[in-house]
Specification:
binds 7,8-dihydrobiopterin, 44% helix, two-stranded parallel ribbon, binds fe (iii) ion, Phenylalanine Hydroxylase, five-stranded mixed sheet, 296 residues, single chain, alpha/beta
């Protein structure tokens, strides 16, 4: 944990938030942000979904002159977001405990890691940093339907914890919010923030023959393990954010109970009943999957 250790002395409130310590960003941090930003700005038109690109424009994160073209000011973004959908951004030191994370989402507060990766980590970081959290997650919170989905996820998380089914909801979050694809008349587009904040995966998820692309299926996703250290082996494709929100409207308690009788699926599995959009070659070198680490 890079800056978490370096700045472990920053005092936190009981809900794990702090005021964004803007004075701690160096000129180098701002330069790294601009580089990350410019790389994605070149890649994402034609790859990211229209809702994301519209959100980015609405936040002014897209204009190089905003925030001096560096790490954005959370308060400025929060005021714009609040006006659009009633969400705000709160600064946190990194991953926070599940119940804290869900508690914020349920109150329409998005916990964003305040610190930025170093230049030598520019292409890959396992934990969320400010680029992933702000650039990847916040633009879609400008969209009213997606904004409601995220709040529902927070409420559902608190409930899933009580039902010992957090792993099932975490899989849903992973394969939608973090790594989801959406079908549009122009073709598949990205809405998952883990992809949108990654130069390599932004291209891989759409253009590589290696991964499976399957139609979104709530119960199927809740059975599917995932990899956190490589590109995904399977992407699930929604038709619209309305479809996603509707599919997640029912009470999950009976679904969790029914799934107890069904085996978990590996990240690469394709099973009978899957609506296959593209079956992957699962070429291990292409996906960076040869490291042999187990799915979780
Ligand atoms: N904390 N800051 C932060 N960001 C996350 O995405 C996050 C978290 N804590 C818990 C968590 N995610 C996950 O365990 C849940 O989404 C399942
Ligand atoms: Fe994330």
């Amino acid at each position: 944990m890079v800056a978490l250790e370096r700045h472990a002395d920053l005092p936190l409130r009981p809900d794990y938030t702090l005021d964004q310590p803007r004075h701690l960003y160096s000129a180098e941090d701002h330069a790294v942000w601009r580089l990350l930003f410019q790389r994605q700005a070149r890649l994402l038109p034609g790859r990211a979904c229209g809702e994301f690109l519209a959100g980015l424009r609405g936040l002014g994160v897209a204009a190089a002159h905003d925030d001096g073209g560096g790490v954005p000011d959370f308060e400025r973004l929060s005021d714009l977001l609040d006006r659009a959908t009633g969400w705000r951004i709160v600064a946190v030191p990194g991953l926070v405990p599940d119940e804290v994370f869900f508690g914020h989402l349920a109150e329409r507060r998005f916990p964003a890691t305040w610190w930025l990766r170093r230049r030598d980590q520019i292409d890959y970081l396992q934990e969320p940093d400010v680029f992933h959290d702000i650039y990847g997650h916040v633009p879609l919170l400008m969209n009213p339907v997606f904004a409601d989905y995220m709040q529902a996820y927070g409420r559902g998380g608190l409930k899933a914890m009580r039902l010992n089914a957090l792993h099932r909801l975490a899989r849903l979050y992973w394969y939608t919010v973090e790594f989801g694809l959406i079908e549009t008349p122009e073709g598949l587009r990205i809405y998952g923030s883990g992809i949108l904040s990654s130069k390599g995966e932004s291209v891989f998820c759409l253009e590589s023959a290696a991964p499976n692309r399957l139609r979104f299926d709530l119960r199927r996703i809740m059975r599917t393990k995932y990899r956190i250290d490589t590109y995904q082996k399977t992407y699930f494709v929604i038709r619209s954010f309305a479809e996603l929100f509707e599919a997640t409207r029912p009470d999950f308690a009976p679904i969790y109970a029914a799934l107890e009788a069904e085996p978990d699926l590996g990240a690469a599995d394709v099973i009978e009943g899957d609506a296959v959009i593209a079956r992957g070659t699962l070429d291990a070198r292409e996906g960076g999957w040869e490291s042999g680490r187990a799915d979780v």
